[in-house]
Structure prediction request, 644 residues.
Amino acid sequence: MAHIPAEKHTPLVLSVEGVTKSFDGFKAINDLNFYLRDGELRTVIGPNGAGKSTFMDLITARTKPDEGKINFHKDNGEDVDLTRVREHHVSQLGIGRKFQNPTIYRSHTVYDNLKLSLSGKRGLLHSLFYKESASDREKIYDVMETIRLKDHAHDLAGALSHGQKQWLEIGMLLAQDPRIMLVDEPAAGMSDEETERTGELLLSLEGKHSLIVIEHDMEFVRQIASRVTVLHQGHVLKEGSFDFVKSDPQVIEVYLGRQTRKH
Amino acid sequence: MNLFDNKLEARGFIVAAIVLLFALPMLNGLTSPDSFLHVSSFQISLWGKYVTYAILAMSLNVLWGYTGMLCLCQSLFFALGAYAFGMYLMLHVGVDTVYNTALPDFMDFQGYTELPWYWKPFESAPFAVLAAVGIPGIVSFIFGVLVFRSRIKGVYFSIITQALTYALMLLFFKNNLELFGQSFILFGGNNGLNGFKEIFGASVDSASTQRWLFIASVLLMLTVYLAIAWVLKTKFGKVQQAIRDSENRIRFSGYSTTTYKLLIFTVCAMIAGAAGALYVPQVGGINANEMTPAKSLDVVVWVAFGGRGTKFGPILGAVVVSLLKSFFLRAAPDSWLIILGAIFIFTVLFMPNGLVGLPQQLKPLWKRIRSKSTTSTVPVS
Prediction:
């Protein structure tokens, strides 16, 4: 499979430098350095407890680091310090997050789920007097096309299958027009066919958005990964192409090794 | 924009408005007491009381049914509104014959000769009306800022709202508050406020006053109903339900759930306060018993029984449970709490959608019974 690799001279969209975060003395993240280029699709793997979820929490300002810098580089060249931003402002900056379990609004229709996620104002008065515009509707249908849920536009989200819920949540991120999408284990609990479709979906987003995908399923990682970051004990152990990482003895030792030994 | 979901709802609303706003008051005021069509003034103020309960239940439903916050201090806000308006009524009882002062009796008992400064503004009717809405609003706003900013939710939110109810109840049961070496007289302690005579210059107990209070209560209920129907159709209403279904998701979509919850909580407290203000002249008094945690739990039962997260359910629940209560309190007084408990358990176990959801729930059962009765006629070979 040939992907367009993120070119070296494309600008950075996110830099994480020297970040440390401990919980009750346990260093969940330890002197982490991580850079993401514009339009890149990056997969983050690592054994349980490697700090993957904490890493996402830090980028989305859900937790604050003890040390280090996390900068989001906006289109206009301006830098935003993500350690000083309130949680609900993160998405307005253009960072969307998909949770591990599908989190959707189950008593709203697919259409309304996406409507609530459209980028735009979020204030009280705005939401009381909001009127749906033709361009909003168009955008929602575009997204539904991408996530293949057009036929379910007016179904309640709670009635969708597990895989469809995962896609809907990805669609909710898309509706926000994010620059960075953080996607936590999108293939968890999916059938093989659904997993493959999810992979196709994420690959189709590469270039338009920058993506960080956390995943366990190695088959899935092989499908989507152009560049893989391996986390271990809160630190970047290795970074490179899937084949490079896969054949690295250290990586095999901490992660793949344990998996292959199991089989 | 059409506020109603279907024709049935729209027709029901119009019929209810005509019956409650015109028919009942006219049958009370224009027919002679001997006529079989006559609705007594007792009935009017009784139903007026139920209407204020219904408004209270609607305000809890907005919090619990639509936003997922099980608030156990809704009766507290109701009582605060009732007290604020009760203070106005209390200051217009005229000069009593025992002490020959215009002060409320409980102040006379304690040797007060002058009205304390914090009671004074309540001599004014407009101030009291504003305070009945404003005080619950201010209390809920301050409390809400503290609670929602700390991300207290779910069961912890319920517990802390119950704690607030309990704390303020203890305060209102006291006669005096000793603070900074000074004694402040409170709001009548155990007895609370009662023995009202005048409201806006008219006699409280007269048939016409009670009739107007009933009409005002119904108007408030219908307005709140329309307001809820409107909000539910807006994006705000969808955000509200999204908070209920998945607060993390909606926060990550960029909505400040703290702000939304704070506004909803405050507005609901103000609605409860307004209902309380209408309650007090129709019932003739308010005391701290109305602030006990059990009263707020009653409202939860009304909403659950009628149908949580439905527009009509809370109204139905409040009225039906109140009717059952007045029936059982007469027929078998000691059994009421057991029956109330049984209603709640039955609702939780067997009627997740309450009375309003019952027809929908029984439909499959009804179909099964019918199909069984037809198949049973076929002999088994």
Notes: Confidence is low (pLDDT under 50) at residues 1-6 of chain A. Residues 12-104+180-262 of chain A form a domain with the Rossmann fold fold (CATH 3.40.50.300). Chain A touches chain B through 31 residues (CB under 8 Å).
